[in-house]
Amino acid sequence: MGMGDRKMKRYTKGLITGILLTASVLPLIAQEDASGLTLEKDGEQVLIPLDEWVAVSSAYDPSNTVRGIYLGMTVDALRIQEKGESFERDIPIDEIGSIFRGKTKSTKEYVWGGIKLGGLVSLGIGGSITVIFLIASGLDLEALPSVFLFGGLWTVVSGIYTVPGGALLGFIRAKAAEGKAVEYVIGDGQWVIVK
User: Fold this and answer.
1) What's the CA gap between 70 and 78, in Å, rounded?
2) Residue 11: pLDDT band by 50, 70, 90 thresholds?
3) Least confident range of 70-84, 85-99, 131-145
4) CA 78 to CA 147: how far, in whole Å?
5) Contacts of 69 (CB under 8 A, 6+ apart)
6) What burial class does residue 50 get, using C-beta atoms within 10 Å of its C-beta: 0-12 exposed, 13-18 middle, 19+ buried?
């Protein structure tokens, strides 16, 4: 056996050892993340899959609620990515009071979403009117200020109807979703998180 053969055997042995060590550690890290979060109560089990919207309330302050996408579980915490945030938040399992699934948005969030939609609709109406009158004027530069003023006026006038209408639509959506939320109270004699 030459010197090159020994080096190749040592390299291969080191590579195989590295692969085996990596393979033995990976299942420990990803084991809980494979299927989702399992809750159990009196022999009944519920699975909350990964990437589902949940709300998690604190055992010490039920008004303190984190809403977001369930990303997985570490040894002692749930990982949640809150709406609009790029980072994950770890919620310690022993501090969880309840886990909600279903409707996870508050009525206020539904109403604000409706208001934003109503505002966008009124901007679309005002913008359309502006474009129509610009084309009708033959792109007359002298008429530009009055055309934009007229389009802005239409935006405001249409907003008087579309913004409250959007708020009402958001409120109706919140009420429709209200009965669809399910609460799993975590604790002794209640639901437990299966690790």
Assistant:
1) 8
2) very low
3) 131-145
4) 55
5) 51, 52, 53, 54, 80, 81
6) middle
